[in-house]
Amino acid sequence: MKVLLAALTINAALAGAVFAAEKCDEPLSNWQPREALKSNLEKEGWKVRSIKSEDGCYEAYAINAKGEKVEAYFNPKSLDAVETKIED
Question: Which among 10, 33, 35, 54 has most CB atoms closer than 10 A?
Fold first, then answer.
């Protein structure tokens, strides 16, 4: 049972990384600066805690306009959201 649970956990983690990588395959030369993403999010009412690069995407930790903690992935060229997770 523990082995099955561990395998499911690993698969779920890898699936998220694969999903982000499929959406974020831009060459580094095409990336917009992090500050542009931060500015866009702040205009939408987000309070950005941090932005980093993860699996070819920008990964932002923030409080959205609804006051929810979010972990969101963005395409670094278009700055479009590719995945958003609401944290508890």
Answer: 54
pLDDT in tens, 37-47: 999 999 999 99
Find where tokens 């903690």 sit. 69
Q: Which two tokens stand for residue 1?
A: 């049972």
CB atoms within 10 A of CB 74: 25
DSSP string, 37-78: HHHHHHHTT-EEEEEEEETTEEEEEEE-TTS-EEEEEE-TTT
pTM assigned to the model: 0.74
Domains of the chain, residue spans: 2-86
C-alpha dist (Å) from residue 24 to 11, 34, 58, 82: 20, 15, 9, 8
